[in-house]
Specification:
single chain, 226 residues, six-stranded mixed beta sheet, three-stranded antiparallel beta sheet, 9 helices, globular
């Protein structure tokens, strides 16, 4: 295995699918739930240290892991936890057939979760409006009519992630959208509010265990309708 990834990437609003040959990764943890499916040889993944080998693996949000060994084509789904119930998601993907179309149709049909609290919804709307520039947690709290500490508690309890972590995740998705739509890494980084392409790549490394260049260079991209 190398660090390079190749194959197809289908990117939706709250999920991404990769089918192809997957490179190894450094240990990392990301906000997305991850589902790994191999139709040929089992995949070996380190989960918080111990190795696990199977043809189907579910890695919940924020669990530290690293891809150690794969052979042949592997299908991976990255799914935003704030949009889906984890148990419903895992059950649906376990039953899905191997293939981009099958997984995409399964994810498209699943019901989405919404933050129960209207204050969190207001904060998320403000976050999306500020994403290409500086995102101030204080301004999100003001939009939600909350103190900063109250907003942090609501984000963790309803979305499962602190404000800063969710901002990073949303920025990364926006930068990937831009990069996959023909922009240079520098243009994509600036458009999503990163300081520069190095900042974008470091964030990609932190969240996915690979740099932006290594993960995007050999992937054929399909942007799904929102």
């Amino acid at each position: 295995m190398t660090d390079e990834w190749s194959g197809q990437l289908w990117l939706g609003r709250d999920y991404g699918l990769i089918l192809g040959e997957t490179g190894r990764t450094a240990p990392h943890a990301h906000y997305a739930h991850q589902f790994i499916l191999s139709s040929d040889s089992p995949v070996t993944v380190s989960l918080d240290g111990p190795l696990h080998t199977a043809c189907r693996l579910f890695i919940p949000s924020r669990q530290s892991h690293a891809i150690v060994q794969t052979q042949g084509n592997v299908l991976m789904a990255y799914v935003e936890p704030g949009a889906f119930d984890a148990q419903v998601l895992q059950h649906a993907l376990d039953a899905a057939d191997f293939g981009l179309e099958s997984f995409e149709q399964t994810l498209r049909r699943l019901p989405r979760r919404r933050a129960d609290d209207a204050r969190v919804q207001r904060a998320l709307l403000t976050l999306d409006q500020q994403l290409s520039g500086k995102v101030s947690a204080q301004s999100l709290a003001q939009a939600a009519h909350l103190s900063l500490s109250q907003l942090e508690r609501l984000f963790v309890s309803q979305l499962g992630v602190p404000v800063r972590r969710l901002v990073m995740w949303r920025r990364l998705r926006m930068a990937l959208d831009l990069a996959l739509n023909g922009h240079t890494l520098t243009e994509a980084a600036h458009g999503a509010g990163f300081a520069d392409s190095a900042h974008f790549s470091r964030t990609m490394k932190q969240l996915f265990g690979v740099t932006a260049g290594a993960s995007l260079r050999h992937l054929q991209v399909h942007l799904l309708p929102l």
